[in-house]
Write a structure and sequence with these properties.
The complex is a heterodimer of chains A (about 300) and B (about 120). Chain A is mainly alpha-helical and about 300 residues long. Chain A has 13 helices and 4 strands. The longest helix of chain A is centred in the N-terminal third of the chain and has 18 residues, at about 1-20. Chain B has about 120 residues and is mostly beta strands. Classes of the chains: A mainly alpha (about 300), B mainly beta (about 120).
Chain lengths: ~300, ~120
């Protein structure tokens, strides 16, 4: 009888607790600061200074602010999108919940999935802030840039695509994912680095740099489609480079991972030849412009 | 991405200006012929006018050295110049035109960006 009681208690109460994923017990972040602290990667700088500084200058370090256009698009997504659609459940900015914003946050802030609705409300408040002065602009930029795509997103949260094959990052306590195994990683929290088989593969970037419509959402969004054109236009034409080989290695850009505004990337991406000829009898000139896209995706993307 | 071809006389007077746009044209909510603006509207493509990878695209412009003017009932060709300077410019215009500012990570800069420029002379002398 005593054994039966213990068995029932074990099955009904203890077993479910043991079977829960580690993240299930983690409380959701309630504020921008709390979410930023949970994904704080400042300690990485102590040993990986050069990489950290490259990242600090990258678009990834301000994925929610971008060049300013991303922050502006947060506003239009709400005012021109969500608030105008009859079945979205959003009549005013205050109605926006995390579930509404995940169509942007999937890539601009995937960790938002671990936040309460109060965080998206805080983001909206900052995004809707009236910018009258340069100081306002920088205030908005600084607050929104607290949340970003940093070391802990690519080297942990989103590091694994095939979780049934390679495991669930959220269940691996203290583990980061990199290009090689490091048994003793000098960090208080992340004490081990596991080799990630896709760290140098385009599919890692493809999670965000898009195939087209994000069909997993009730109302799909479409931002980037670079990965789609990489697969179906570049690889299919015999291309063999990876995202990392052009945006990180070839021009020694590392974790800056620049795109069109970088002079080296711009020079390499599109070749332009111009031929002119004249036809005096017809009083005409002919200009022939030959443009060759040498990038691994459509140009421009969008 | 916009390709601009400008033909000028040797003293800088613009004779002709052409422009062609290259960009993917996303469908609005994945239906019909209207273009979607903003990631919240875009789904699928109506046309893909961007430059395809590993692909050469040739754009041809025929530029007259003359203009057509009416002379009585006839339309006649009036020579404007015997020599032209041709500027070919490839612009990146994130807002679709030469306007707008953005934050480049260190400072506020112009959003539009001259990607490539080639100049050529051509004549019918």
């Amino acid at each position: 009888m005593r054994f039966l009681k213990f068995f029932l208690v074990f099955v009904c109460f203890i077993l479910p607790l043991l079977c829960q994923p580690v993240s299930a017990g983690t409380k959701k972040a309630k504020s921008i600061d709390e979410l930023a602290a949970r994904y704080d990667c400042s300690s990485c700088k102590e040993c990986h200074e050069e990489i950290y500084e490259q990242w600090e200058k990258s678009m990834h370090s301000r994925s929610l602010f971008g060049t300013g256009r991303t922050a502006a698009t947060i506003v239009t997504t709400i005012t021109k999108g969500l608030m105008t659609w009859p079945y979205s459940g959003v009549k005013k900015p205050k109605d926006v919940k995390v579930k509404h914003f995940m169509m942007c946050a999937k890539c601009h802030l995937p960790q938002l999935a671990e936040a309460e609705d109060s965080v998206i409300q805080e983001i909206i408040k900052i995004a809707f802030m009236k910018v009258r002065t340069k100081a306002d602009f920088h205030k908005r930029r600084e607050i929104l840039s607290k949340l970003n795509i940093n070391c802990l997103i690519c080297h942990r949260r989103n590091a694994i695509v095939h979780k049934w094959v390679d495991g669930y990052p959220e269940k691996e306590k203290g583990v980061l994912y990199g290009t090689r195994d490091v048994e003793e990683h000098e960090d208080e929290v992340y004490t081990r680095v596991k080799k990630n088989p896709i760290m140098g593969e385009s599919i890692l970037c493809g999670q965000c740099h898009g195939l087209g419509p994000n069909f997993e959402f009730d109302n799909p969004s479409q931002c980037a489609s670079a990965y789609g054109s990489y697969l179906f236009n570049y690889i299919s034409r015999g291309g063999s480079e990876t995202c990392q080989s052009c945006h990180m290695k070839k021009f020694h850009k590392g974790h800056l991972m620049p795109a069109y505004r970088d002079i080296d990337m711009a020079k390499a991406a599109v070749e332009m030849d111009v031929d002119v000829a004249s036809y005096p009898a017809h009083k005409l000139a002919m200009v022939e412009v030959k443009m060759t896209n040498k990038a691994g995706h459509n140009f421009p993307d969008g | 991405m916009v390709l601009e071809v400008t033909a000028k006389t040797p003293d800088g007077k613009v004779i002709k200006r052409y422009s062609r746009s290259f960009m993917p044209v996303p469908a609005r909510f994945g239906r019909g012929y209207k273009m979607g603006r903003g990631p919240y509207e875009k789904s699928g493509l109506i046309r893909n006018l961007s430059l395809l990878p590993l692909n050469r695209r040739t754009e041809t412009f025929i530029i007259p050295f003359y203009e057509e003017v009416k002379k009585g009932r006839k339309v006649v060709k009036r020579l404007l110049t015997k020599e032209m300077n041709i500027d070919v410019e490839l612009w990146y215009l994130p807002f679709g035109e030469k306007k707008g500012i953005l934050w480049d990570g260190e400072k506020i800069t112009k959003a539009f960006y001259l990607w490539k420029k080639v100049s050529r002379k051509v004549d019918i002398k």
